[in-house]
From TrEMBL:
Active site: S238, D316, H351
GO annotation (BP), single: acyl-CoA metabolic process
Molecular function, one GO term: fatty acyl-CoA hydrolase activity
Species in which this protein is naturally found: Periophthalmus magnuspinnatus
Domain Acyl-CoA thioester hydrolase/bile acid-CoA amino acid N-acetyltransferase: 27-147
Boundaries of every BAAT/Acyl-CoA thioester hydrolase C-terminal domain copy: 212-406
Name of the protein described by the UniProt record: Acyl-CoA thioesterase 19
Domain of life: Eukaryota
Family: Belongs to the C/M/P thioester hydrolase family.
Amino acid sequence: MICPIRMGMSYECSVLLSVHPSRALVDEKFKVLVQNASPGAELTVHSHLLSEDKHNWEAFGHYICDSTGSVNCKSLTMYFSPVQFSLFYWRARHMLRKSNVETPLEVTVSVYQGHLTEGFPEHRALAAVLVERWYMAPGVQRIPVTEHNLTATLFLPPGPGPFPAVLDLWGGGGNLVEYRSSLLASHGFAALALDYLTNDLTITTGKMMKNDYFETAYKFLEQHPQIVGSRIAMWGLSLGTAMTLKMAAYSKVMKLRCAVCYSGSHIQPVNGSTEEILNNFLKNQDKTRINEKQEVIWHDMGRVQCPLLLVVGQDDQNWPAFVSAMDIKKMMEKAGNIHLLTLLVYPDTGHLIEPPYSPHTRASTFRSFESRELYTSLWGGQTVGHARAQEDSWRKSLMFLREHLYGRRKKSNL
């Protein structure tokens, strides 16, 4: 019989299992220490999460105890020791999307005798602990925004401010996605998560958003009393990158301090609305594999005059982000503003580059915004390479924002 699960530490008879810290942000590393096992014993460290949508997520790694009967794991979702080749990975059947960022992810970490790969519920754990992983740090404020016909959520860091801000756009799946914004606020940036595809105004009018919707969101941030109006960035993923690049290059209202773009493209109608851009993506779906080179480029990236961080994976199977990044680089070189570009290219990395320690999802069921039908989408990426890219790109993205929004390489206290 297992000892009762306790926060951070549990033990049964002789085997001790501890996880530190037991409560932390999702992008913080945490150490797992197994003690009092037999020297040379083969052990499996396992984690389990029941998500909000009632899907089971699990990860495991195989280890061999040292001469003291101990195993020291430095991270739970990364590739570990080069001596004992072990891979601790999430088994991803779906995309993990945290809807309620005001509650933590509750992960049960267990240790088992032997090197197991399946059937964990049928085996007896030697010890287990419960840990919490948060997207919101203590003191972060979550403020729903509906004024000016916006569908958004503003996250403010702890303290009086004012703070630099990030306008945060997700991709073509629609809906209001808050977890990246709440995590950015936990690192000192005000962040506005913006729904631009499935918001109330789109449903009411039957029309998708045009440029002025994004400019309205920008002006909301610019005029907010707890935000430094001259220090606003824009961050886009996938379709959100297309919108970010477009606004950075063409908007006369938005004076962005910098822009961060993940897994996206500048392949779009220059003067198109959100609907026209999305329809253009759908029309060219047969050209969105990285081994195809039939793209037609309409967007002059030489117009971008703010620092730009591009993050792409070379195994992106959803959109030709790498090809687009190379073309953007050439355009900026030709325009004489290549000094504004920071380009991060990661091998074995797919489309869905998430905050660190998020599960790698190579393929998943995806609901098309246009038809609302479910289909399987291939995102790409290999577990180890993708996990490393998520950790490295997140760290460098925060450094990029600190440098250009704070004017210095500000260290986070979180």
